[in-house]
Specification:
One of its GO terms (molecular function) is DNA binding. With 221 residues, the chain is α+β, with helices and mostly antiparallel strands. Helix content is 49%, strand content 19%.
Length: 221
């Protein structure tokens, strides 16, 4: 793929058929930015990168995964990322919205995840150096402000007890404060106090922002 190319594929099967060899040929750097672990979930690609890391050694091959807090929604996902780290990859979590879900290989090839189609996710593959360099720079800028996985897991995800989760559910129900308080069996004053406490836990300035923050962290599930 020396000449600049741009083409699209649909679904994981076609992606591996068309560009699977690129994962095998990675020489120095593999970067991945995704909202969650489902975006780029091909086991063949993961195995190929792990093989490259073993063959090259940690000092000669860089593998970095940049994810949103949604990727930490359940313990299975967290355990997977810990395994990825244990094999030499670097994992960081960004609270900022990722503008592109993408894979960058050796700063020469880029795979952008697009819309869902009836036969799977659409992916755009390009070797345009201008496009690759632009997204690469953006990845680096977000990476530099993101938090490594262990640090994030230790302190950034607040613990919500059963009462807080009930309040969060009530906020998402569309009920008035009075109706929500009656449903929960508490006074209106107590309900509003608990809402305020929840907003503090989620570092939210408004109820709407609290809902968004909880969704990002997977706390509303």
């Amino acid at each position: 793929m020396r000449n600049e190319q741009v083409f699209s594929v649909r679904g994981d099967v076609e992606l591996i058929e068309r560009v699977g060899h690129l994962f095998e040929s990675a020489q120095a750097e593999f970067l991945c930015a995704a909202r969650d672990l489902k975006t780029f979930s091909q086991p063949e690609a993961r195995a190929a990168i792990q093989n490259r890391m073993r063959a090259k050694g940690a000092s000669a091959f860089t593998s970095q995964k940049l994810l949103s807090p949604v990727a930490l929604a359940d313990e299975e996902a967290r355990a997977h990322l810990r395994r990825v780290q244990s094999k030499g990859a670097l994992v960081r979590i960004s609270g900022s919205q990722l503008p592109h879900e993408t894979i960058l290989i050796d700063q020469q090839v880029m795979i952008l995840a697009g819309r869902q189609t009836p036969i799977g996710r659409e992916y755009t593959v390009t070797t345009s150096q201008i496009l690759v360099d632009g997204v690469h720079s953006l990845f680096r800028a977000i990476w530099d402000t993101a938090v490594d996985l262990d640090t994030y897991l230790r302190g950034d995800i607040p613990h919500l007890d059963a009462d807080s989760r009930m309040i969060l559910k009530a906020l998402g129900s569309g009920l008035t404060d009075a109706s929500a308080a009656r449903r929960l069996g508490v006074s209106l004053r107590t309900y509003r106090r608990r809402v305020a406490e929840l907003m503090v836990k989620l570092e939210a300035d408004s109820r709407f922002q609290a809902g968004l923050r909880a969704g990002e962290l997977g706390l509303s599930r």
